[in-house]
Amino acid sequence: MNKEAVHSDQAPAAIGTYSQAxxxxxxxxxxxxxxxxxxxxxTVSGDFEARARQVFxxxxxxxxxxxxxxxxxxxxxxxxxxxxxxxxxxxxxxDYFAQPFPARAAVGVASLPKGVDVEADAILAL
Length: 126
Known about the structure:
Number of helices: 2
Helix content: 10-25%
């Protein structure tokens, strides 16, 4: 198996023992992104929608570094500490993805890193 780490300075640096993404063959596995500003490594200010947009901006930056974009996503997992924000995630996704939309799971969780309320990871097929 050939695997290659993918890195973008336009997305937050890894805050643990993981890569932003791993590319193997035509698949790219993007690690979870939370709403961190890559320049400051702090959670973006604003409402839930602003935080969700930052998550997708971060995923998009890593996808680009891998040679793709968000329309190459075949599977998306969204983690939410409040499933009441699910409708907002749907609204935001319409601005980042074209049809056919990726397969997706939305998972309600008790907590996320750095106390944020949204995280997403993805699998791309290039």
